[in-house]
């Protein structure tokens, strides 16, 4: 018998336990273990009913993703599932933790399912660019009906045990998975319940068979946000087979769809992103086994947009927050915004009706920095100038308790200089959240020169606890994300002087898959901030300056690079802007030329990659995949393109280096010269992925 699974017998109940940490993924060994042990239970004449359960923190979390792309090893999952489904003795899945992907498919092949109350059940394959490949698209619609099945399979989000119970996906909610399932199993035998095989039960498909719009409407609602992605549409087709075709035929077509996606570039990129995200949580250069500090309470300084959003993220995760302002009025305003925000989410059904009150109760609003005294982690989110930050940190040093981690949410300032204001630079680091902070998943954790390893571990683990994706970066102007973005911004602006229009540049960027182009983003952020800072520094940017002089500050004034209809955020191209650009160029004696979309794409993306190469060479990011994580979760880089560094590898570094050198010459811009690391890799025919772990950030 296999080591990862075993069979125990409690008189008539055979208990098959899978134990393959960390998440009981369906590796070849686990598949074999299930098959052998279920067969042994079937063969044992004493056993009348079989319970399938898992050891450790979770039920099976899916196929073993690390096996994808390698030659398949027997037994195939579908063969394991048909052995379960065809068992002459009832098989009951006992679910705790998460039953995901292939894990839920195993459970769906069982005759009955029970789960603990905090269990989650889902088919998240689309998030890896796949569709369920072991009957999930055929059995789940038969278990819960096509509408919920579409939501779970095409949307990829799991449901909780209560919803699963209501929908008929599980029979009972139990206390302990194995003991609860065993009691349920005895009932099945005592009551002589039939072997429920989902494959043979079309009752929940009847309505959609009669009126296919039930299905197509559900698909249309879910795929609204699937722009550019292949998997959700292929997954929807597969659910359609459940409605239109006999089970075996549907299963065959599902398998074909799965295999096609498995070799697709999109799925490869999405699987890369899955592991990149987990890799980013492993901090380069920190001694193994370093433990984080305990964080029971967080203090956040500043109840503005950033501070409020950060506070919400902590309260969402059940962590108490002391929210500190300089005056009652600002505090009240900040608290009001949070409350409204949660109430709006509750009204949409996004969180339970009592959640806003519960979360507000976790936030203790206070005036005065002395109130940081009970906090284990302090996050400063005040005005973005060095003088203000220094003053705050000087005071924090006075009031914060010994050992508290002191973080700044600065988006570009030097953390070393901030840390130097305290007598405890080992406790100081950056936690750079992205706006809106309660929504965006990225948190750049900035490691300063003297940051202690355990302070760093604390920041990374607390970020994960509040459902953020942390990426550790080093100190430099703009850290990883904004430093790369600045290069894109610079080229975007230059393109306007050469002949492109804002809408042309933005269209290329959004067609690539980014949620917004640089000019629509400028309008959203407000153009006046940059204008003022240019004036302070005596710098000119004639087109942007002319827009601001004409009162076009972006969305807030209803016009910027675009015009906006009242109450709408949709950017509309504005002939007045084209005129303004023409006039500005005429004044400067410049002529517009036709700029191709190809050039725009190259000049938007390649300079960022070039900057990424510099960031790696300087050790600001430890791994190319960390840079990808920053872009995926902080800037909406399309997941099916894996991240800028991954994408660069797929384009070819030699091509990118050549094009950069070409544009450097053509547009007389030395900043576009290929970075030494990019050039070296290009010359050697290598990729970013080939880099061994770089210098620790
Ligand atoms: C599928 O099932 C296809 C089938 O339909 C068809 C087959 C024919 N495989 O996330 P964590 C590792 S597709 C391999 O940090 P958490 C992970 O890399 C699959 N490894 O923990 C990490 O390793 P390390 C559908 C996996 O508690 C460690 O486990 N299923 C897998 O925050 C801990 O992970 C999914 O998409 C895997 N399937 O979250 C579920 N899963 O420590 C994917 C995890 O070395 N998994 N690992 O970095 C998840 O969503 C989360 O891992 C889970 C736990 C919620 C389970």
TrEMBL record:
Pathway: Lipid metabolism; fatty acid beta-oxidation. It is found in: Peroxisome. It comes from the Bacteria. It catalyses: a (3S)-3-hydroxyacyl-CoA + NAD(+) = a 3-oxoacyl-CoA + NADH + H(+). Residues 298-474 form the 3-hydroxyacyl-CoA dehydrogenase NAD binding domain. Coiled coil: none annotated. Its main location: other. SUPFAM superfamilies: 6-phosphogluconate dehydrogenase C-terminal domain-like (SSF48179), ClpP/crotonase (SSF52096), NAD(P)-binding Rossmann-fold domains (SSF51735). Keywords: Fatty acid metabolism, Isomerase, Lipid degradation, Lipid metabolism, Lyase, Multifunctional enzyme, NAD, Oxidoreductase, Peroxisome. Residues 478-564, 600-687 form the 3-hydroxyacyl-CoA dehydrogenase C-terminal domain. It holds the Pfam family 3HCDH. In the N-terminal section; belongs to the enoyl-CoA hydratase/isomerase family. Monomer. This is Enoyl-CoA hydratase/isomerase family protein. The lineage of its organism: Bacteria, Pseudomonadati, Pseudomonadota, Alphaproteobacteria, Hyphomicrobiales.
């Amino acid at each position: 018998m296999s080591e990862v699974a075993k069979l125990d017998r409690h008189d008539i109940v055979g208990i098959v336990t899978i134990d393959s940490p960390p998440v009981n993924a369906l590796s070849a060994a686990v598949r074999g273990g299930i098959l052998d042990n279920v067969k042994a239970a079937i063969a044992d004449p004493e056993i009348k009913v079989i319970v399938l359960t898992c050891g450790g923190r979770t039920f099976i979390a899916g196929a073993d993703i690390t096996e994808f792309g390698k030659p398949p090893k027997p037994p195939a999952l579908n063969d394991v599932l048909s052995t379960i489904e065809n068992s002459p003795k009832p098989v009951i899945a006992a679910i705790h933790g998460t039953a995901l992907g292939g894990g839920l498919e195993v459970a769906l092949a069982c005759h009955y399912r029970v789960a603990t109350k905090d269990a989650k059940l889902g088919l998240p394959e689309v998030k890896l660019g796949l569709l369920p490949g072991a009957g999930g698209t055929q059995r789940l619609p038969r278990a819960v009906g096509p509408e919920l099945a579409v939501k779970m399979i095409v949307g990829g989000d799991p449901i909780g045990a209560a919803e699963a119970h209501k929908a008929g996906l599980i029979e009972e909610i139990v206390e302990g998975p194995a003991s609860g399932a065993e009691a349920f199993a005895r009932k099945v035998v005592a009551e002589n319940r039939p072997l429920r095989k989902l494959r043979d039960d079309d009752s929940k498909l009847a309505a959609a068979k009669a009126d296919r719009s039930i299905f197509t409407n559900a698909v249309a609602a879910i795929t609204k946000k699937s722009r550019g992605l292949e998997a959700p549409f292929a997954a929807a087709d597969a659910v359609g087979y459940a409605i239109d075709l006999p089970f075996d035929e549907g299963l065959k077509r599902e398998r074909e769809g799965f295999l096609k996606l498995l070799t697709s570039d999109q799925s490869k990129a999405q699987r890369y992103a899955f592991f990149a995200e987990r890799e980013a949580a492993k901090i380069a250069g920190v001694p193994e086994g370093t433990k984080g500090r305990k964080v029971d309470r967080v203090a956040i300084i500043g109840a503005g947009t950033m501070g409020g959003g950060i506070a919400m993220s902590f309260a969402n995760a059940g962590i108490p927050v002391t929210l500190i302002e300089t005056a009652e009025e600002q505090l009240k305003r900040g608290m009001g915004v949070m409350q409204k925000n949660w109430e709006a989410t509750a009204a949409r059904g996004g969180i339970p009706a009592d959640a806003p009150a519960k979360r507000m109760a976790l936030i203790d609003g206070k005036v005065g920095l002395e109130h940081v005294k009970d906090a284990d982690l302090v996050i400063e989110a005040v005005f973005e100038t060095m003088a203000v930050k220094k003053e705050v940190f000087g005071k924090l040093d006075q009031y914060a308790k010994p050992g508290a981690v002191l973080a700044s949410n600065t988006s570009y300032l030097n953390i070393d200089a901030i840390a130097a204001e305290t007598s405890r630079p080992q406790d100081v680091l950056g936690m750079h959240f992205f706006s809106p902070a309660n929504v965006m998943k990225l948190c750049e954790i900035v490691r300063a020169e003297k940051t202690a390893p355990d302070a760093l571990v604390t920041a990374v683990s607390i970020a994960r606890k509040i459902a953020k994706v942390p990426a550790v970066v080093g100190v430099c102007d703009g850290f990883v994300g904004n430093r790369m973005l600045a290069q894109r911004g610079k080229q975007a602006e230059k393109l306007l002087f050469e002949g492109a229009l804002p809408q042309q540049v933005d269209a290329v960027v959004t067609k690539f898959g980014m949620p917004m182009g640089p000019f629509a983003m400028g309008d959203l952020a407000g153009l006046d901030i940059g204008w003022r800072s240019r004036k302070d520094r005596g710098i000119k940017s004639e087109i942007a300056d002319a827009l601001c002089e004409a009162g076009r500050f972006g969305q807030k004034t209803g016009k910027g690079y675009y015009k906006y209809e009242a109450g709408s955020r949709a950017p509309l191209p504005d002939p007045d802007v084209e005129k303004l650009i023409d006039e500005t160029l005429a004044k400067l004696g410049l002529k517009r030329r036709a700029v191709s979309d190809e050039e725009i794409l190259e000049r938007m993306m390649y300079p960022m990659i070039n900057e990424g190469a510099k960031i790696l060479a300087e050790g600001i990011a430890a791994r190319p995949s960390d840079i990808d994580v920053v872009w995926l979760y902080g800037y909406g880089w399309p997941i099916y393109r894996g991240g800028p560094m991954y994408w660069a590898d797929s384009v070819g570094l030699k091509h990118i280096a050549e094009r950069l050198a070409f544009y450097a010459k053509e547009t007389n811009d030395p900043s576009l010269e290929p970075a030494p690391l990019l050039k070296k890799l290009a010359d050697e025919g290598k990729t970013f992925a080939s880099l061994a772990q770089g210098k620790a950030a």
